[in-house]
Specification:
Structural class: alpha/beta
Number of helices: 14
Strand content: 25-35%
Largest sheet: 9 strands, mixed
Oligomer: single chain
Shape: globular
Length: 354
C-alpha cells in the first residue's frame, strides 16, 4: 500500500487563473471567452463588478455577490477571502441555488502576485479536495510590457509562474520578436500566443494540468513541457545574467529568474527527496517560484507527482501507472537567484548525509 494519496484530478473541478498587468486585456479576454459555447458552464470570479466591465447583461442576481450572465456563466466577486468565495460557490451549486458549473476562472487584480492563489489551490484541504489548478494564464500588453517588466517584479513573476502567455495589443506594435524572446527566456516552458482583441480558442488556453479530463489520461509531457529545457533553444540552468551581457539589456528582474530541469535515471529515496525539498523551502522558499516533477521512488510501483509554489507544496500524489516507458525522475524548477548548481549541490549534500 502506497504512503501517497492516489490522484483524483479527473473528479475535481479545473480552476484557471487569469493574471496580467493593469490594462493588459484580462477583461477583454474574459468577455470573449464567455461567448464560446463550450464556456457556458463556467463560474467566473472577479475582483469587483465595477472594476471589471463584463459586457453581458446580468440576467439574474442570485444574491449580493453572485449573478448569472446572459451566456449562462455564473459571475461572482471575490469578497475579502477567496477561499470563502470558492466554498460558497460550491455550496450554492450543490444546493441548486445556482446553475451547475464545471470550471472556474479567477481573474486577479493587475498588481496581484498569483502565488497565494496557486498555494490555496495546491494545499488548502477545504479547497483542493474539490478543485484542481488547471492553468495559470498571463496576459502581456505588447505596448507596455517592456517598461512594466523592467520596473515591476510582480509583472516578471506573473510571467515566470504562467503556463500560458498571451500577448495582447499586437496590432499596435510593429515588431514583438524582442518581447517574445524575453518572455521565452523568463519562462521557457510556457506556451506563447498572440491574441487579437481577446479572441482565442479556449482549447488553446486551458488544459495545462497533469490530467487531461477529456481523454481521461495523464499527460506528463504537456505538464512538464520538458523539451523546452532540453532543446537547442533551452536556457536550462543558465543564469540569465549570461544572456543579459550579450543583449546589452539591463533587465535586473529578469536576470535573477532561472528555469531548469533535473533528471535522475535511478529510483530516488523518498526521505532524501523530502529533506532536500524541505531544506530548499526553508532556506529559499521566497525564491522558489514554482517546482513540479514526476518521481520514480524506491519501492513505489507508480510515479509520484510533486508540485509547489514557494514554500507551499501539494501533498505528493501517486499516479495509477507510468504514462509511458520513460521512468526517469524529472523535476522542473523556476527560481529567483537559485542556480541549477545550487540545487544539485544541496541534493548531493543531503544524499551524503543520509
Amino acid at each position: 500500500m502506497s504512503l501517497f494519496e492516489s490522484d483524483k484530478s479527473a473528479q475535481r473541478l479545473p480552476v484557471s487563473l487569469i493574471t496580467g498587468f493593469l490594462g493588459s486585456g484580462k477583461t477583454t479576454l474574459l468577455n470573449r471567452l464567455l461567448r464560446h459555447d463550450d464556456m457556458k458552464d463556467s463560474a467566473v470570479i472577479i475582483n469587483e463588478y465595477g472594476e471589471v466591465s463584463l459586457d453581458h447583461l446580468l440576467v439574474e442576481r442570485v444574491d449580493g455577490e453572485v449573478a448569472v450572465l446572459a451566456s449562462g456563466c455564473i459571475c461572482c466577486t471575490i469578497r475579502s477571502d477567496l477561499e470563502q468565495t470558492l466554498r460558497d460557490l460550491l455550496v450554492k451549486r450543490d444546493r441548486g441555488e445556482i446553475p451547475p458549473f464545471h470550471r472556474i476562472l479567477i481573474e486577479t487584480t493587475g498588481l496581484a502576485d498569483p502565488a497565494p492563489i496557486v498555494q490555496l489551490l495546491l494545499n488548502n484541504p477545504l479547497v483542493s479536495h474539490f478543485l484542481r489548478l488547471d492553468a495559470i494564464v498571463t496576459t502581456i500588453d505588447a505596448v507596455n510590457a517592456s517598461h512594466q517588466l523592467d520596473r515591476q517584479f510582480e509583472a516578471v513573476k506573473q510571467v515566470a509562474l504562467a503556463d500560458r502567455l498571451l500577448i495582447t495589443k499586437r496590432d499596435l506594435v510593429e515588431d514583438i520578436s524582442a518581447l517574445q524572446s524575453r518572455l521565452r527566456q523568463l519562462n521557457p516552458a510556457a506556451g506563447i500566443e498572440t491574441v487579437d482583441h481577446g479572441e482565442i480558442d479556449p482549447a488553446n488556453l486551458f488544459g495545462a494540468g497533469l490530467i487531461d479530463p477529456e481523454k481521461k489520461k495523464i499527460d506528463v509531457a504537456r505538464w512538464l513541457n520538458e523539451h523546452a529545457f532540453t532543446g537547442p533553444h533551452a536556457h536550462a540552468g543558465h543564469s540569465h545574467h549570461e544572456h543579459a551581457q550579450h543583449d546589452h539589456d539591463h533587465h535586473d528582474h529578469d536576470a535573477s529568474i532561472t528555469s531548469f530541469m533535473l533528471a535522475f535515471d535511478e529510483p530516488l529515496d523518498w526521505m532524501a527527496v523530502t529533506h532536500w525539498l524541505a531544506h530548499l523551502r526553508s532556506a529559499r522558499g521566497a525564491d522558489l517560484l514554482r517546482v513540479k516533477g514526476i518521481l520514480n521512488l524506491q519501492g513505489e510501483p507508480a510515479p509520484i507527482v510533486i508540485h509547489g509554489v514557494h514554500h507551499v507544496f501539494h501533498p505528493p500524489v501517486a499516479l495509477a501507472a507510468w504514462p509511458d516507458s520513460d521512468r526517469r525522475s524529472r523535476i522542473v524548477f523556476i527560481t529567483r537567484g537559485i542556480s541549477r548548481a545550487d540545487v544539485l549541490d544541496l541534493w548531493q549534500a543531503v544524499r551524503a548525509a543520509a
